[in-house]
Design brief:
This protein has 153 residues and is α+β, with helices and mostly antiparallel strands. It is 28% helix and 25% strand. The chain has a five-stranded antiparallel sheet with strand order 1-2-3-5-4, with helices on one face. The chain is globular and about 40 Å long. GO terms for molecular function: ATP binding.
């Protein structure tokens, strides 16, 4: 269920994964309260090592929101959450995989609610985001960010 997926050739649709990836990293996390912070740190470290820190605040926010949703709504108790960051020529993509059922959707939270705005934030900050099925149980929720082209060494 992609959201805001454009016809741009570099938009990285839900079926595009490592095709043409320049760099990628993956880490598996236990389902814990500390997972969103650990996922943010993991993504931040990967981007710093790659020298790709433009839009870092946006990417960290989306990573945190996607990981939080996986902890609260996606991964069953005792489950794992996989976070993957892929650097493509002009797009950076964050994926958060969990073993839970259901499809996350944007929803309007009441003004008095203290939660329920995560995907609204992701939609507002990321260039594209969506949900794709995985082999086996669960889903992958992803966010993509355009950046300047990676220069060849």
């Amino acid at each position: 269920m992609p959201s805001r997926l454009s016809d741009e050739p570099d938009a990285l649709g839900p079926d595009q994964t490592l095709d043409g990836a320049v760099e990628h990293r993956t880490m598996l996390f236990d389902r814990r309260r500390t997972t969103p912070g650990a996922a943010r740190s993991f993504v931040t470290e990967a981007l710093a090592q790659w020298g790709r820190t433009e839009r870092l605040d946006d990417i960290r926010l989306c990573t945190s929101e996607l990981a939080t949703n996986a902890v609260l709504h996606g991964s069953p108790a005792g489950g794992k959450i996989l976070v993957r960051v892929e650097l493509h020529t002009t797009v950076l993509r964050i994926e958060v995989h969990d073993g839970g059922n259901g499809t996350p959707t944007e929803r309007e939270a009441p003004s008095t609610a203290t939660d329920g705005r995560g995907l609204l934030l992701v939609s507002a900050v990321a260039d594209h985001w969506g949900v794709k099925e995985r082999q086996g149980p669960g889903k992958c929720v992803w966010a993509a960010f355009h950046h300047s082209a990676v220069t060849a060494c």
